[in-house]
Amino acid sequence: MKKLFTILFAGIFTFSVSAQTDQGTILFNLGTPLGFSSTSVTDVEGNGGVSFGDVYNKWTMSSLNLDLTDFSSMLDDVTMGYFVSDNIVVGLKFGISSGGMKQEFNGGPNVKQDSSSMTLGPVFRYYIEAGDMYLFPQIAYVMGSGKTVNETSIGTTTTTSEVENKSSNLSIGFGMAILLGDYITLEPTLSYNIMSQTVVDGGFDASGNTVDRVTKMSQIHFGINLSYHLEM
After folding, report:
1. Phi, psi for residue 17 in degrees, rounded to 5
2. Which of 126, 138, 192, 221 is disulfide-compatible with 37, CB 3.0–4.6 A?
3. Which of 166, 149, 84 is nearest to 111 (CA)?
4. CA dihedral 153, 198, 36, 224 (to 10 degrees)
């Protein structure tokens, strides 16, 4: 009897592993802020008509987050996908973020800032079964838009300014899906990103004309995501 239960348990576990990537399954993925990124600025346009090399020798940035209690930005990177066939996911990546700041100075102006942004784009994954986990290559292209509103009040006079921005990100990556349960996976992912950020009317050319300021970047990113697989 004990041997029978062992065989049945192994069979159920094997079924649940393979069923996670069956055709018709829905994928819901949340990106966490945990991870590391290294970003290099490769070009800046709308910088007074001078080239990037005339101004900068090198411009790099890096960030590391290992705070296991920080899940405040999980909605910044959400993926909804559908298994169009076994092991193949086609879906959408999207994100929504907002923030604000308010300063009141003694005898001075009151300053208020509100910002919001949204991103959206297609994503493709192919899962490869490797024992009790999966490996997957992934490609995604995400575009975004947002705005920042600044408001300064002095007495009864209020001045408001608004800055619009746009972004794009072509991401090519590879990850693994580690099974935490029948439907939940932990996904460490390494990706290479080609990004651009545009500030609408944020720069000027050599003639002093107002143009969009475009910053182009490349990035290596390692992150950890959580996924839920819903069988239909």
Report:
1. -65, -50
2. 221
3. 149
4. 100
Rounded alpha-carbon distances, angstroms, from residue 205 to 18, 55, 202, 217? 57, 14, 11, 20
Going by their DSSP bridges, the two strands 110-126 and 88-104 should be labelled as: antiparallel
Neighbours of 75 (CB within 10 A): 13
Q: Dump pLDDT digits (tens) for 110-151.
A: 899 999 999 999 999 999 999 888 999 999 999 999 999 999
pTM: 0.82
Asked if 42 contacts 51 with a C-beta cutoff of 8 angstroms, the reply is: no
- Range 108-113 contact pairs with CB under 8 angstroms and sequence separation of 24 or more: 108/154, 109/152, 109/153, 109/154, 110/152, 110/153, 110/154, 111/150, 111/151, 111/152, 111/153, 112/150, 112/151, 112/152, 112/153, 113/148, 113/149, 113/150, 113/151
Read off the pLDDT of residues 187-221 as tens digits, 9 standing for 90 and up.
Answer: 999 999 999 999 998 888 877 888 899 999 999 99
